[in-house]
Write a structure and sequence with these properties.
CATH class of one domain: Mainly Beta
Shape: extended
Strand content: 35-45%
CATH superfamily of one domain: Jelly Rolls
Largest sheet: 6 strands, antiparallel
CATH topology of one domain: Jelly Rolls
Distance between the termini: 58 Å
Length: 148
């Protein structure tokens, strides 16, 4: 007669748990496709960050995108949102208020209120507040479905 050790029971339990977790994840419904919506500034709370605050308006798939993400950042005077970086998704940044410089093609350029910068896919970019007060900007970024 074969005896089952405590170790065998632990291994079998872990394997079963992993299998059930993977099966549950595979069956979880995909996020709903975003439909037309009004996003009210006053209904979106500003959440504090190390460099200022952020209002998250939207992050969802749409009929044509795997993800559309919209947020508004308020950056404290003299600070950068983050180090220069690059990512696959493209994004627009629209300056609402303040004085910022953006890194595009290795050059820092001042952006005026109402100006827009397009950060293209996989191109290094950054943004910093060069003013004496807060700078607020809208960020709209999107991801296309894989293979498109």
């Amino acid at each position: 007669m074969t005896r089952i050790s405590s170790r065998d029971l632990v291994v079998a339990s872990l394997a079963a748990a992993v299998t059930l977790t993977v099966a549950a994840a595979a069956q979880s419904p995909a996020p709903a496709v975003q439909r037309s919506v009004v996003l009210d500034w006053n209904a979106m709370p500003a959440k504090p960050t190390d460099v200022g605050s952020v209002r998250q308006f939207l992050r969802a798939p749409t009929a044509t995108l795997s993800e559309l993400e919209i947020h508004v950042t308020t950056l404290k005077a003299g600070l950068a949102s983050h180090a220069p970086h690059r990512h696959a998704n493209e994004e627009l940044v629209i300056l609402k208020e303040g004085e910022v410089e953006v890194l595009v093609h290795g050059t820092w350029t001042r952006m005026g209120v109402g100006s827009i910068v397009l950060n293209a896919s996989n191109e290094e970019h950054a943004l910093r507040n060069v003013g004496t007060g807060p700078a607020t900007y809208h960020v709209i970024n999107w991801k296309v479905p894989e293979g498109k």
